[in-house]
Amino acid sequence: MGDGATTTGFFERVAARVRATGGCLVVGLDPRRDEFDADERKLLAEGRAREALIAHARRLCAATSSLAVAYKPNLAFYEAFGSDGWAALEAIVPMLRAYAPVLVDGKRGDIGSTAEAYATALYDRLGADGVTVNAWMGEDAVRPFVRPGKAVFVLVRTSNPGAGVVQDVAGRPLIFTVH
Fold it and tell me: Is residue 152 within 8 Å of 146, Cβ to Cβ?
C-alpha cells in the first residue's frame, strides 16, 4: 500500500508517488457501462449500481496501484448513477487515497456560497485531495476551493472543437489569476 497520509499536501504526495513509481500516470475513473466486466454488469442488472461501481474501481485500482501517481474520478460518470453513484464515491475515494492522491474532476464553479457547498462536499464529505474548478464566475467561485494542502486545477482551455468560441478572447486565450 502507498502512503495514505492526510497531513501531506497534494503535490508532495504526487512527488512521492513519482519517485516511488518512476512514472507520471494519472488514472482517470470514468465508469462507462460498456467498460464493466461481466460481474459488474451482473450487479448493475440486479439494481446494485453502488456495488458495481465499487467493484469497477477496485479492479482498476488493482491494475494500476503500483503505477499511479494520482487518481482522477470524474463526478459526472458517478452522478449519472444517482444516489448510488455518490454512495459509491464515498467508498471509492478513501480506497484510492490509500495508494495515491485523489483529484476529483467536477469542474465546479458557481457563486461564493454555492462554491463553498461544493468545496465542503468534495473535500469534507468525499475526502478529495484536489479538485478541478471552472472559474467562469470569477475569483469568488474559486476561493472556497483553496485550502492548505489541497490542489485546485482551474479550467482555462479545453480541447473540444467549439471551445474557442468562448475561451478565446480576440484570438487570445483567456487568462485567470486568483489573488
Answer: yes
Q: Give the dihedral of Cα atoms 70, 149, 89, 69; nearest 10 deg.
A: 10
Of 42, 72, 107, 150, the active-site residue reads 107
Extract the C-alpha cell encoding 173: 486565450
**Alpha carbons 163 and 151: distance in angstroms, whole number:** 24
58-68 confidence digits (pLDDT tens): 999 999 999 99
Contact 133, 109 (CB under 8 A): yes
Q: Which of 67, 65, 74 is nearest to 29 (CA)?
A: 74
C-alpha–C-alpha distance, residues 17 and 157, integer Å: 27
**pTM listed for this prediction:** 0.87
SS3 state at 30: coil
For residue 107, indicate whether it is catalytic. yes
Determine the Cα–Cα distance for residues 139 and 162; give it in Å rounded to an integer: 24
